[in-house]
Specification:
Radius of gyration: 26 Å
Strand content: under 5%
Distance between the termini: 83 Å
Oligomer: single chain
Number of helices: 28
Protein backbone atom coordinates (compact mmCIF):
# COMPACT_ATOMS: atom_id res chain seq x y z
CA UNK A 1 0.00 0.00 0.00
CA UNK A 2 2.87 2.36 0.83
CA UNK A 3 4.39 1.62 -2.56
CA UNK A 4 1.14 2.58 -4.28
CA UNK A 5 1.07 5.89 -2.41
CA UNK A 6 4.67 6.74 -3.25
CA UNK A 7 4.17 5.80 -6.90
CA UNK A 8 1.15 8.11 -6.98
CA UNK A 9 3.33 10.87 -5.53
CA UNK A 10 5.87 10.32 -8.28
CA UNK A 11 3.30 10.24 -11.10
CA UNK A 12 1.39 13.35 -10.04
CA UNK A 13 4.31 15.54 -8.98
CA UNK A 14 3.48 18.45 -11.31
CA UNK A 15 0.00 19.27 -9.93
CA UNK A 16 1.29 18.58 -6.44
CA UNK A 17 4.08 21.15 -6.91
CA UNK A 18 1.53 23.71 -8.10
CA UNK A 19 -0.72 22.88 -5.17
CA UNK A 20 2.18 23.28 -2.75
CA UNK A 21 3.08 26.65 -4.27
CA UNK A 22 -0.52 27.80 -3.97
CA UNK A 23 -0.57 26.74 -0.33
CA UNK A 24 2.69 28.55 0.47
CA UNK A 25 1.47 31.62 -1.43
CA UNK A 26 -1.80 31.65 0.51
CA UNK A 27 0.09 31.34 3.80
CA UNK A 28 2.47 34.18 2.91
CA UNK A 29 -0.39 36.43 1.83
CA UNK A 30 -2.24 35.71 5.06
CA UNK A 31 0.90 36.32 7.09
CA UNK A 32 1.47 39.67 5.36
CA UNK A 33 -2.17 40.67 4.99
CA UNK A 34 -2.06 43.73 7.26
CA UNK A 35 1.18 44.87 5.69
CA UNK A 36 -0.33 44.48 2.20
CA UNK A 37 -3.35 46.54 3.21
CA UNK A 38 -1.03 49.17 4.66
CA UNK A 39 1.16 49.16 1.53
CA UNK A 40 4.09 48.53 3.88
CA UNK A 41 6.92 48.21 1.41
CA UNK A 42 9.51 47.71 4.11
CA UNK A 43 12.74 47.82 2.12
CA UNK A 44 14.14 50.91 0.43
CA UNK A 45 14.57 48.99 -2.83
CA UNK A 46 10.94 47.88 -2.85
CA UNK A 47 9.76 51.48 -2.52
CA UNK A 48 12.06 52.66 -5.28
CA UNK A 49 11.02 49.73 -7.51
CA UNK A 50 7.42 50.87 -7.12
CA UNK A 51 8.43 54.38 -8.15
CA UNK A 52 10.22 52.99 -11.21
CA UNK A 53 7.10 51.07 -12.19
CA UNK A 54 4.89 54.14 -11.74
CA UNK A 55 7.26 56.22 -13.83
CA UNK A 56 7.21 53.62 -16.60
CA UNK A 57 3.41 53.47 -16.61
CA UNK A 58 3.22 57.27 -16.71
CA UNK A 59 5.36 57.36 -19.83
CA UNK A 60 8.98 57.59 -18.75
CA UNK A 61 11.22 56.24 -21.49
CA UNK A 62 11.88 52.49 -21.33
CA UNK A 63 15.65 53.05 -21.35
CA UNK A 64 15.61 55.98 -18.91
CA UNK A 65 15.86 54.62 -15.36
CA UNK A 66 16.70 57.87 -13.62
CA UNK A 67 14.51 58.54 -10.61
CA UNK A 68 13.57 62.20 -10.90
CA UNK A 69 12.01 62.40 -7.44
CA UNK A 70 15.47 61.89 -5.95
CA UNK A 71 17.91 64.79 -6.39
CA UNK A 72 15.48 66.85 -8.47
CA UNK A 73 15.54 68.10 -11.15
CA UNK A 74 18.54 66.11 -12.42
CA UNK A 75 17.36 62.88 -10.83
CA UNK A 76 19.30 59.93 -9.43
CA UNK A 77 20.95 57.39 -11.73
CA UNK A 78 19.59 53.94 -10.81
CA UNK A 79 21.62 50.96 -12.07
CA UNK A 80 18.69 48.53 -12.41
CA UNK A 81 16.92 47.23 -15.52
CA UNK A 82 13.28 47.19 -16.60
CA UNK A 83 13.04 43.39 -16.65
CA UNK A 84 11.75 43.11 -13.07
CA UNK A 85 9.32 46.00 -13.63
CA UNK A 86 7.35 44.00 -16.21
CA UNK A 87 5.27 41.63 -13.99
CA UNK A 88 4.51 44.40 -11.48
CA UNK A 89 3.47 46.83 -14.20
CA UNK A 90 1.52 44.13 -16.04
CA UNK A 91 -0.54 43.18 -12.98
CA UNK A 92 -1.23 46.81 -12.16
CA UNK A 93 -2.28 47.70 -15.71
CA UNK A 94 -4.48 44.61 -15.95
CA UNK A 95 -6.32 45.24 -12.68
CA UNK A 96 -6.56 49.05 -12.58
CA UNK A 97 -9.74 49.20 -14.72
CA UNK A 98 -11.38 46.67 -12.38
CA UNK A 99 -10.07 47.69 -8.96
CA UNK A 100 -8.72 51.19 -9.30
CA UNK A 101 -5.08 52.26 -9.14
CA UNK A 102 -4.33 51.97 -5.39
CA UNK A 103 -5.94 48.53 -4.99
CA UNK A 104 -4.33 47.30 -8.20
CA UNK A 105 -0.97 48.34 -6.78
CA UNK A 106 -1.67 46.44 -3.57
CA UNK A 107 -2.48 43.29 -5.55
CA UNK A 108 0.60 43.78 -7.75
CA UNK A 109 3.05 44.09 -4.86
CA UNK A 110 1.45 41.09 -3.16
CA UNK A 111 1.33 38.83 -6.21
CA UNK A 112 4.47 39.71 -8.18
CA UNK A 113 7.00 38.17 -5.73
CA UNK A 114 5.07 34.90 -5.76
CA UNK A 115 5.88 34.36 -9.46
CA UNK A 116 9.64 33.83 -8.94
CA UNK A 117 8.73 31.68 -5.92
CA UNK A 118 6.87 29.36 -8.31
CA UNK A 119 9.87 29.25 -10.67
CA UNK A 120 12.20 28.37 -7.79
CA UNK A 121 9.91 25.68 -6.37
CA UNK A 122 9.51 24.01 -9.75
CA UNK A 123 13.25 24.13 -10.47
CA UNK A 124 14.28 22.77 -7.07
CA UNK A 125 11.61 20.05 -7.27
CA UNK A 126 13.04 18.97 -10.63
CA UNK A 127 16.54 18.85 -9.11
CA UNK A 128 15.32 16.74 -6.17
CA UNK A 129 13.55 14.29 -8.47
CA UNK A 130 16.55 13.91 -10.77
CA UNK A 131 19.28 13.69 -8.16
CA UNK A 132 17.64 12.08 -5.13
CA UNK A 133 14.34 10.30 -5.77
CA UNK A 134 11.16 10.89 -7.70
CA UNK A 135 9.34 11.24 -4.37
CA UNK A 136 11.83 13.61 -2.67
CA UNK A 137 10.42 16.86 -4.07
CA UNK A 138 8.02 17.54 -1.14
CA UNK A 139 11.07 17.72 1.13
CA UNK A 140 12.69 20.30 -1.15
CA UNK A 141 9.49 22.37 -1.17
CA UNK A 142 9.26 22.17 2.61
CA UNK A 143 12.81 23.47 2.91
CA UNK A 144 12.01 26.33 0.53
CA UNK A 145 9.07 27.26 2.75
CA UNK A 146 11.31 27.18 5.84
CA UNK A 147 14.34 28.97 4.38
CA UNK A 148 13.73 32.30 6.09
CA UNK A 149 16.30 34.42 4.25
CA UNK A 150 15.49 33.02 0.82
CA UNK A 151 11.73 32.87 1.39
CA UNK A 152 11.79 36.50 2.46
CA UNK A 153 12.87 37.45 -1.05
CA UNK A 154 9.67 35.87 -2.41
CA UNK A 155 7.24 37.18 0.19
CA UNK A 156 4.45 39.61 -0.74
CA UNK A 157 5.66 43.24 -0.92
CA UNK A 158 9.25 42.13 -1.67
CA UNK A 159 9.16 43.41 -5.24
CA UNK A 160 12.85 44.08 -5.62
CA UNK A 161 15.00 42.10 -8.06
CA UNK A 162 16.57 39.60 -5.66
CA UNK A 163 13.65 37.16 -5.83
CA UNK A 164 13.98 36.80 -9.57
CA UNK A 165 17.75 36.40 -9.34
CA UNK A 166 17.34 33.58 -6.82
CA UNK A 167 14.72 31.92 -9.02
CA UNK A 168 17.00 32.07 -12.06
CA UNK A 169 19.82 30.63 -9.97
CA UNK A 170 17.50 27.73 -9.10
CA UNK A 171 16.84 27.30 -12.83
CA UNK A 172 20.61 27.17 -13.35
CA UNK A 173 20.79 24.31 -10.83
CA UNK A 174 18.11 22.45 -12.77
CA UNK A 175 20.06 23.06 -15.97
CA UNK A 176 23.23 21.61 -14.45
CA UNK A 177 21.39 18.38 -13.64
CA UNK A 178 19.58 18.03 -16.97
CA UNK A 179 20.42 14.67 -18.58
CA UNK A 180 19.58 16.14 -22.00
CA UNK A 181 22.81 17.94 -22.74
CA UNK A 182 21.69 20.49 -25.31
CA UNK A 183 18.58 21.45 -23.35
CA UNK A 184 20.59 21.82 -20.15
CA UNK A 185 23.14 24.03 -21.88
CA UNK A 186 20.52 26.28 -23.42
CA UNK A 187 18.67 26.61 -20.12
CA UNK A 188 21.86 27.51 -18.24
CA UNK A 189 22.81 30.10 -20.85
CA UNK A 190 19.38 31.74 -20.82
CA UNK A 191 19.17 31.74 -17.01
CA UNK A 192 22.60 33.36 -16.84
CA UNK A 193 21.74 36.02 -19.42
CA UNK A 194 18.46 36.97 -17.72
CA UNK A 195 20.06 37.06 -14.28
CA UNK A 196 22.87 39.33 -15.48
CA UNK A 197 20.36 41.59 -17.20
CA UNK A 198 18.71 42.05 -13.81
CA UNK A 199 21.92 42.63 -11.82
CA UNK A 200 25.39 41.38 -11.05
CA UNK A 201 24.71 39.88 -7.61
CA UNK A 202 24.76 36.24 -8.79
CA UNK A 203 27.74 36.63 -11.13
CA UNK A 204 30.12 34.45 -9.08
CA UNK A 205 27.70 31.53 -8.81
CA UNK A 206 26.79 31.70 -12.50
CA UNK A 207 30.46 31.89 -13.48
CA UNK A 208 31.04 28.73 -11.44
CA UNK A 209 28.18 27.04 -13.26
CA UNK A 210 29.80 27.95 -16.57
CA UNK A 211 33.15 26.70 -15.33
CA UNK A 212 31.62 23.39 -14.27
CA UNK A 213 30.11 23.06 -17.75
CA UNK A 214 33.59 23.38 -19.25
CA UNK A 215 34.95 20.91 -16.68
CA UNK A 216 32.31 18.35 -17.63
CA UNK A 217 33.40 18.64 -21.26
CA UNK A 218 37.04 18.16 -20.25
CA UNK A 219 36.11 14.95 -18.41
CA UNK A 220 33.66 13.67 -21.02
CA UNK A 221 34.01 14.61 -24.68
CA UNK A 222 30.33 13.78 -25.23
CA UNK A 223 29.48 16.89 -23.19
CA UNK A 224 30.40 19.03 -26.22
CA UNK A 225 26.71 19.41 -27.08
CA UNK A 226 25.98 20.87 -23.64
CA UNK A 227 28.96 23.23 -23.89
CA UNK A 228 28.09 24.44 -27.38
CA UNK A 229 24.44 25.00 -26.48
CA UNK A 230 25.48 26.87 -23.33
CA UNK A 231 27.90 29.12 -25.20
CA UNK A 232 25.42 29.94 -27.95
CA UNK A 233 22.58 30.63 -25.51
CA UNK A 234 24.85 32.70 -23.27
CA UNK A 235 26.14 34.90 -26.06
CA UNK A 236 22.82 35.24 -27.88
CA UNK A 237 20.83 35.71 -24.68
CA UNK A 238 23.16 38.40 -23.37
CA UNK A 239 23.10 40.25 -26.69
CA UNK A 240 19.29 40.26 -26.76
CA UNK A 241 19.09 41.22 -23.08
CA UNK A 242 21.46 44.13 -23.69
CA UNK A 243 19.35 45.43 -26.56
CA UNK A 244 16.05 44.96 -24.71
CA UNK A 245 16.76 45.96 -21.14
CA UNK A 246 19.97 47.93 -20.65
CA UNK A 247 19.35 51.56 -19.73
CA UNK A 248 20.99 54.55 -21.39
CA UNK A 249 23.24 55.04 -18.37
CA UNK A 250 24.37 51.41 -18.46
CA UNK A 251 25.53 51.68 -22.06
CA UNK A 252 28.65 53.31 -20.66
CA UNK A 253 31.45 50.94 -19.51
CA UNK A 254 30.21 50.76 -15.91
CA UNK A 255 31.07 47.82 -13.66
CA UNK A 256 28.06 47.63 -11.35
CA UNK A 257 25.44 46.62 -13.92
CA UNK A 258 25.07 44.75 -17.19
CA UNK A 259 26.96 47.05 -19.55
CA UNK A 260 29.38 46.79 -22.49
CA UNK A 261 31.93 45.53 -19.95
CA UNK A 262 29.96 42.41 -19.09
CA UNK A 263 28.36 42.04 -22.52
CA UNK A 264 31.81 41.77 -24.10
CA UNK A 265 32.91 39.29 -21.44
CA UNK A 266 29.83 37.10 -21.94
CA UNK A 267 30.06 37.24 -25.73
CA UNK A 268 33.71 36.21 -25.53
CA UNK A 269 32.94 33.46 -23.00
CA UNK A 270 30.10 32.16 -25.15
CA UNK A 271 32.25 32.25 -28.28
CA UNK A 272 35.10 30.38 -26.56
CA UNK A 273 32.66 27.76 -25.28
CA UNK A 274 31.25 27.19 -28.78
CA UNK A 275 34.74 27.05 -30.29
CA UNK A 276 35.94 24.50 -27.75
CA UNK A 277 32.89 22.33 -28.40
CA UNK A 278 33.27 22.52 -32.17
CA UNK A 279 36.98 21.64 -32.13
CA UNK A 280 36.36 19.01 -29.44
CA UNK A 281 39.81 17.39 -29.29
CA UNK A 282 39.87 13.66 -28.64
CA UNK A 283 42.57 13.75 -25.97
CA UNK A 284 41.69 14.87 -22.46
CA UNK A 285 45.06 16.58 -22.10
CA UNK A 286 44.41 18.57 -25.25
CA UNK A 287 40.98 19.58 -23.97
CA UNK A 288 42.55 20.76 -20.70
CA UNK A 289 45.10 22.83 -22.62
CA UNK A 290 42.46 24.31 -24.93
CA UNK A 291 40.21 25.26 -22.00
CA UNK A 292 43.18 26.78 -20.15
CA UNK A 293 44.16 28.88 -23.17
CA UNK A 294 40.58 30.03 -23.66
CA UNK A 295 40.16 30.92 -19.99
CA UNK A 296 43.48 32.75 -19.83
CA UNK A 297 42.64 34.72 -22.97
CA UNK A 298 39.27 35.70 -21.48
CA UNK A 299 40.81 36.87 -18.20
CA UNK A 300 43.65 38.73 -19.91
CA UNK A 301 41.31 40.51 -22.33
CA UNK A 302 39.03 41.57 -19.47
CA UNK A 303 41.97 42.89 -17.43
CA UNK A 304 43.37 44.84 -20.40
CA UNK A 305 40.06 46.26 -21.62
CA UNK A 306 38.33 46.91 -18.31
CA UNK A 307 40.97 47.31 -15.57
CA UNK A 308 38.63 49.63 -13.62
CA UNK A 309 36.30 46.65 -13.02
CA UNK A 310 38.86 44.46 -11.29
CA UNK A 311 38.09 45.94 -7.86
CA UNK A 312 34.88 46.68 -6.04
CA UNK A 313 32.15 46.98 -8.66
CA UNK A 314 30.49 50.02 -7.06
CA UNK A 315 33.62 52.11 -7.58
CA UNK A 316 32.87 53.96 -4.34
CA UNK A 317 35.11 56.54 -2.73
CA UNK A 318 36.81 55.75 0.59
CA UNK A 319 34.60 58.35 2.29
CA UNK A 320 31.40 56.76 0.98
CA UNK A 321 32.57 53.34 2.12
CA UNK A 322 33.50 54.68 5.56
CA UNK A 323 30.33 56.68 6.16
CA UNK A 324 27.82 54.37 4.47
CA UNK A 325 28.68 51.15 2.61
CA UNK A 326 30.69 49.57 5.40
CA UNK A 327 27.84 50.25 7.85
CA UNK A 328 25.12 48.48 5.85
CA UNK A 329 24.04 45.50 7.98
CA UNK A 330 23.83 43.06 5.10
CA UNK A 331 27.39 43.97 4.10
CA UNK A 332 28.69 42.72 7.48
CA UNK A 333 29.90 39.14 8.10
CA UNK A 334 27.26 36.79 9.47
CA UNK A 335 29.05 36.43 12.80
CA UNK A 336 28.71 40.17 13.39
CA UNK A 337 24.94 39.76 13.74
CA UNK A 338 25.05 37.69 16.92
CA UNK A 339 24.65 33.97 17.53
CA UNK A 340 20.86 33.91 17.31
CA UNK A 341 20.62 35.64 13.95
CA UNK A 342 23.60 33.75 12.59
CA UNK A 343 22.05 30.42 13.56
CA UNK A 344 18.85 31.22 11.66
CA UNK A 345 20.88 32.00 8.54
CA UNK A 346 23.50 29.24 8.60
CA UNK A 347 21.53 26.20 9.84
CA UNK A 348 20.18 25.28 6.41
CA UNK A 349 23.47 25.92 4.56
CA UNK A 350 25.35 23.74 7.07
CA UNK A 351 22.83 20.93 6.54
CA UNK A 352 23.21 21.43 2.82
CA UNK A 353 26.98 21.15 2.96
CA UNK A 354 26.69 17.95 4.99
CA UNK A 355 24.28 16.55 2.42
CA UNK A 356 26.54 17.50 -0.49
CA UNK A 357 29.55 15.93 1.22
CA UNK A 358 27.52 12.76 1.82
CA UNK A 359 26.39 12.57 -1.81
CA UNK A 360 29.88 13.24 -3.15
CA UNK A 361 31.29 10.47 -0.98
CA UNK A 362 28.46 8.07 -1.83
CA UNK A 363 28.89 8.59 -5.59
CA UNK A 364 32.68 9.03 -5.64
CA UNK A 365 33.11 6.10 -8.03
CA UNK A 366 30.15 6.95 -10.27
CA UNK A 367 31.13 9.86 -12.53
CA UNK A 368 27.62 10.09 -13.95
CA UNK A 369 26.28 10.97 -10.48
CA UNK A 370 29.35 12.53 -8.90
CA UNK A 371 29.79 15.28 -11.48
CA UNK A 372 26.21 16.67 -11.27
CA UNK A 373 26.43 16.60 -7.46
CA UNK A 374 29.76 18.40 -7.67
CA UNK A 375 28.15 20.98 -9.97
CA UNK A 376 25.43 21.59 -7.37
CA UNK A 377 27.79 21.59 -4.40
CA UNK A 378 30.39 24.04 -5.71
CA UNK A 379 28.23 27.22 -5.71
CA UNK A 380 26.69 26.17 -2.38
CA UNK A 381 30.15 25.95 -0.79
CA UNK A 382 31.05 29.35 -2.27
CA UNK A 383 27.89 30.97 -0.91
CA UNK A 384 28.51 29.51 2.54
CA UNK A 385 32.06 30.87 2.49
CA UNK A 386 30.82 34.30 1.40
CA UNK A 387 28.67 34.47 4.54
CA UNK A 388 31.92 35.00 6.42
CA UNK A 389 32.35 38.17 4.34
CA UNK A 390 28.85 39.54 3.86
CA UNK A 391 25.47 38.46 5.24
CA UNK A 392 23.81 39.42 1.96
CA UNK A 393 24.95 36.01 0.68
CA UNK A 394 22.41 34.43 3.07
CA UNK A 395 19.45 34.03 0.67
CA UNK A 396 21.63 32.51 -2.04
CA UNK A 397 23.39 30.28 0.50
CA UNK A 398 20.06 28.93 1.73
CA UNK A 399 18.61 28.39 -1.73
CA UNK A 400 21.75 26.72 -3.07
CA UNK A 401 21.86 24.42 -0.03
CA UNK A 402 18.36 22.99 -0.56
CA UNK A 403 19.33 20.07 -2.85
CA UNK A 404 22.07 19.02 -0.41
CA UNK A 405 19.85 19.46 2.66
CA UNK A 406 17.08 17.51 0.93
CA UNK A 407 19.50 14.68 0.17
CA UNK A 408 20.67 14.67 3.80
CA UNK A 409 17.13 14.50 5.17
CA UNK A 410 16.12 11.87 2.59
CA UNK A 411 19.08 9.67 3.48
CA UNK A 412 18.08 9.76 7.15
CA UNK A 413 14.46 8.97 6.28
CA UNK A 414 15.56 5.98 4.22
CA UNK A 415 17.85 4.77 6.97
CA UNK A 416 15.19 4.87 9.70
CA UNK A 417 12.99 2.53 7.69
CA UNK A 418 15.29 -0.28 8.83
CA UNK A 419 14.63 0.49 12.51
CA UNK A 420 12.15 -1.69 14.36
CA UNK A 421 10.71 0.85 16.82
CA UNK A 422 7.94 2.93 15.30
CA UNK A 423 8.72 5.84 17.60
CA UNK A 424 12.20 6.03 16.11
CA UNK A 425 10.95 5.62 12.55
CA UNK A 426 8.66 8.60 13.05
CA UNK A 427 10.57 10.66 15.58
CA UNK A 428 13.98 10.75 13.92
CA UNK A 429 12.68 12.13 10.57
CA UNK A 430 10.58 14.75 12.38
CA UNK A 431 13.55 15.88 14.48
CA UNK A 432 15.74 15.90 11.37
CA UNK A 433 13.34 18.14 9.47
CA UNK A 434 12.99 20.49 12.44
CA UNK A 435 16.76 20.85 12.70
CA UNK A 436 17.68 20.92 9.01
CA UNK A 437 14.97 23.43 8.12
CA UNK A 438 15.87 25.81 10.95
CA UNK A 439 12.42 25.53 12.55
CA UNK A 440 13.97 24.25 15.77
CA UNK A 441 16.41 27.17 15.89
CA UNK A 442 13.58 29.62 15.36
CA UNK A 443 11.52 28.16 18.19
CA UNK A 444 14.50 28.12 20.54
CA UNK A 445 15.04 31.82 19.85
CA UNK A 446 11.39 32.53 20.57
CA UNK A 447 11.34 30.43 23.72
CA UNK A 448 14.37 32.23 25.15
CA UNK A 449 14.02 35.85 24.01
CA UNK A 450 16.87 38.21 24.65
CA UNK A 451 16.17 41.19 26.93
CA UNK A 452 15.70 44.45 25.05
CA UNK A 453 16.96 47.69 26.54
CA UNK A 454 14.79 50.81 26.65
CA UNK A 455 17.09 52.45 24.11
CA UNK A 456 16.82 49.50 21.71
CA UNK A 457 13.06 49.42 22.25
CA UNK A 458 12.79 53.09 21.27
CA UNK A 459 14.73 52.40 18.07
CA UNK A 460 12.53 49.42 17.23
CA UNK A 461 9.43 51.54 17.80
CA UNK A 462 10.70 54.30 15.53
CA UNK A 463 11.66 51.79 12.82
CA UNK A 464 8.15 50.31 12.99
CA UNK A 465 6.17 53.57 13.11
CA UNK A 466 8.02 56.05 10.89
CA UNK A 467 7.56 54.32 7.49
CA UNK A 468 3.81 53.71 8.01
CA UNK A 469 1.10 55.43 6.00
CA UNK A 470 -0.59 56.96 9.08
CA UNK A 471 2.70 58.46 10.24
CA UNK A 472 3.53 59.89 6.82
CA UNK A 473 0.02 61.10 5.99
CA UNK A 474 0.41 64.49 7.76
CA UNK A 475 3.75 64.93 6.01
CA UNK A 476 2.11 64.14 2.68
CA UNK A 477 -0.54 66.81 3.29
CA UNK A 478 2.01 69.61 3.13
CA UNK A 479 2.50 71.38 -0.22
CA UNK A 480 4.90 69.32 -2.37
CA UNK A 481 8.55 70.18 -2.03
CA UNK A 482 12.08 68.83 -1.75
CA UNK A 483 12.89 67.35 1.66
CA UNK A 484 16.17 66.98 3.50
CA UNK A 485 15.69 63.73 5.40
CA UNK A 486 17.60 60.55 6.18
CA UNK A 487 19.12 58.64 3.26
CA UNK A 488 17.23 55.44 4.09
CA UNK A 489 13.93 57.32 4.39
CA UNK A 490 14.17 58.90 0.94
CA UNK A 491 12.64 56.05 -1.13
CA UNK A 492 9.71 55.59 1.28
CA UNK A 493 9.06 59.34 1.34
CA UNK A 494 8.80 59.62 -2.43
CA UNK A 495 6.70 56.43 -2.69
CA UNK A 496 3.88 57.53 -0.37
CA UNK A 497 4.01 61.35 -0.39
CA UNK A 498 4.15 63.96 -3.18
CA UNK A 499 7.53 65.20 -1.93
CA UNK A 500 10.98 64.67 -3.39
CA UNK A 501 14.16 63.78 -1.51
CA UNK A 502 17.83 64.50 -2.02
CA UNK A 503 19.18 60.96 -1.75
CA UNK A 504 18.42 57.29 -1.39
CA UNK A 505 20.80 54.44 -0.47
CA UNK A 506 22.12 53.88 -4.01
CA UNK A 507 25.84 54.09 -4.64
CA UNK A 508 25.54 56.04 -7.89
CA UNK A 509 23.84 58.68 -5.76
CA UNK A 510 27.18 59.02 -3.91
CA UNK A 511 27.54 62.81 -3.99
CA UNK A 512 24.05 63.32 -2.64
CA UNK A 513 24.46 60.62 0.04
CA UNK A 514 27.63 62.28 1.29
CA UNK A 515 26.07 65.75 1.23
CA UNK A 516 23.12 64.55 3.33
CA UNK A 517 25.34 62.73 5.80
CA UNK A 518 27.67 65.70 6.13
CA UNK A 519 24.68 67.96 6.72
CA UNK A 520 23.40 65.83 9.61
CA UNK A 521 26.87 65.51 11.10
CA UNK A 522 27.93 69.12 10.60
CA UNK A 523 26.73 72.41 12.09
CA UNK A 524 23.71 74.48 11.08
CA UNK A 525 25.76 76.56 8.64
CA UNK A 526 26.85 73.46 6.71
CA UNK A 527 23.28 72.18 6.68
CA UNK A 528 22.12 75.52 5.29
CA UNK A 529 24.61 75.26 2.45
CA UNK A 530 23.18 71.83 1.61
CA UNK A 531 19.64 73.21 1.81
CA UNK A 532 20.51 76.04 -0.59
CA UNK A 533 22.41 73.78 -2.97
CA UNK A 534 19.47 71.40 -3.42
CA UNK A 535 16.75 74.05 -3.07
CA UNK A 536 15.27 72.23 -0.08
CA UNK A 537 11.79 73.21 1.10
CA UNK A 538 11.49 71.04 4.23
CA UNK A 539 13.67 69.35 6.81
CA UNK A 540 12.24 66.11 8.21
CA UNK A 541 13.54 63.84 10.95
CA UNK A 542 12.21 60.80 12.78
CA UNK A 543 14.10 60.68 16.08
CA UNK A 544 15.53 57.26 16.98
CA UNK A 545 15.20 55.84 13.48
CA UNK A 546 18.21 53.54 13.05
CA UNK A 547 20.12 55.84 10.71
CA UNK A 548 19.68 58.78 13.10
CA UNK A 549 21.46 56.95 15.93
CA UNK A 550 24.70 57.07 13.92
CA UNK A 551 24.52 60.86 13.59
CA UNK A 552 23.70 61.29 17.26
CA UNK A 553 26.55 59.05 18.45
CA UNK A 554 29.19 60.33 16.03
CA UNK A 555 28.21 64.01 16.01
CA UNK A 556 26.55 64.77 19.39
CA UNK A 557 26.69 68.49 18.61
CA UNK A 558 25.78 68.14 14.94
CA UNK A 559 22.76 69.46 13.07
CA UNK A 560 20.66 66.35 13.61
CA UNK A 561 21.40 66.19 17.33
CA UNK A 562 20.41 69.86 17.69
CA UNK A 563 17.11 69.33 15.87
CA UNK A 564 16.31 66.18 17.85
CA UNK A 565 16.88 68.18 21.05
CA UNK A 566 14.43 70.87 19.88
CA UNK A 567 17.05 73.48 18.94
CA UNK A 568 16.36 74.57 15.37
CA UNK A 569 18.12 77.48 13.64
CA UNK A 570 16.14 80.62 12.85
CA UNK A 571 15.89 79.73 9.16
CA UNK A 572 13.59 76.81 10.00
CA UNK A 573 9.92 77.24 10.93
CA UNK A 574 8.11 74.29 12.61
CA UNK A 575 5.45 72.52 10.57
CA UNK A 576 2.52 71.52 12.84
CA UNK A 577 2.09 67.75 13.01
CA UNK A 578 -0.24 65.67 15.22
CA UNK A 579 0.89 65.29 18.82
CA UNK A 580 1.41 61.55 18.39
CA UNK A 581 3.47 61.91 15.20
CA UNK A 582 6.91 60.27 15.35
CA UNK A 583 8.20 63.01 13.03
CA UNK A 584 9.52 66.53 13.45
CA UNK A 585 9.25 68.74 10.41
CA UNK A 586 10.33 72.26 9.54
CA UNK A 587 9.78 74.57 6.56
CA UNK A 588 12.83 76.38 5.21
CA UNK A 589 12.59 80.20 5.46
CA UNK A 590 14.19 81.84 2.45
Amino acid sequence: MAGVRTDWLDRHWRPLVLLAWAGIAAYLIGQRWNAIRGFALGDTDDNLRMMQVRALIKGQDWFDLRQYRLNPPAGADIHWSRLVDLPIAGIKLLLTPLLGGPTAEQVAVAAAPLLPLLVAIVALSVVARRMIDGRAFPLAILLVACAGSARGMWSPLRIDHHGWQLALLAVALAALTDPKRARGGVLLGIATALSLAIGMEMLLYLALAGGVTVLRWIIDREEARRLAAYGAALGGGCALAFLAFVSEANRAPVCDAFSPVWLSAMLAAGGIAVALALVNPAGRGTRIAAAAVGGAALVAAFALLWPHCLGRLEGSSPELERLWLNRVREAMPVWRHGARTAALIVTLPIAGLIGYALMLWTHRRDAGRFIPWFALALPAFLAAALLLWQTRAGPAAQMLSIPGATAFAWAIMQWVQSLRLMILRVGIPVVTILIVSGIATSYVNRAFPQPVSEYRRSINLANARCPTLPALRPVAQQPPGTVLTFVDLGPRLIAVTPHSAIAGPYHRNAEQILDVMRAWRGDAAQARRTVDRYRVDYVLICPNLSESTIYRSEAPRGFYAQLAAGRAPDWLAPVPLPDDSPYKMWRVIR
